[in-house]
Amino acid sequence: MAKPPISSVQLDLRISKQDLEPKKYWEEIGYGSFATVYKAYCKKHNGFVAVKELFKEYRDVQQKEIDKLVQLSTHIHVVGIKGVDPDRNLIIMEYCSYSLSKLRKTLGKTYIPWPRCLLYATNHEWG
């Protein structure tokens, strides 16, 4: 059986403006060359999510990134995609209350075995 086209997958991932709390409550948690990332509450998923807001000049990057995230969404080392709002250039992903760089600084290592990483992350609140 052939894989469904990405556009049909996106229909299941669509997030509306009403699903997310108002932007004035979002907390900026990161930024890069293509986007700013916020922590926001999502009513549809009943919890916090990471909202990646792509800069308008990089709108063409959005579809490529969504395609990659959907393909990799079941990989244990990739943050899962929870939704998209193409009208507002948003990609909604799982929210992690910790970062790998913070974990490395805390544990003082450049390589951290996943079992130890998960144990440490679940026993400490960094959010």
Automatic annotation (TrEMBL):
Q: What is this protein called?
A: Protein kinase domain-containing protein
Q: Which UniProt keywords apply?
A: ATP-binding, Nucleotide-binding
Please spell out the taxonomic lineage of the organism that makes this protein. Eukaryota, Metazoa, Echinodermata, Eleutherozoa, Echinozoa
**Domain called Protein kinase: residue spans:** 23-127
Repeat as a keyword? Answer: no
Sites where the protein binds ATP: K52
On whether Transmembrane helix is a keyword of this UniProt record, the answer is: no
Q: What terms describe the molecular function in GO for this protein?
A: ATP binding; protein kinase activity
The record's listing under InterPro entries reads:
Kinase-like_dom_sf, Prot_kinase_dom, Protein_kinase_ATP_BS
Which species? Stichopus japonicus
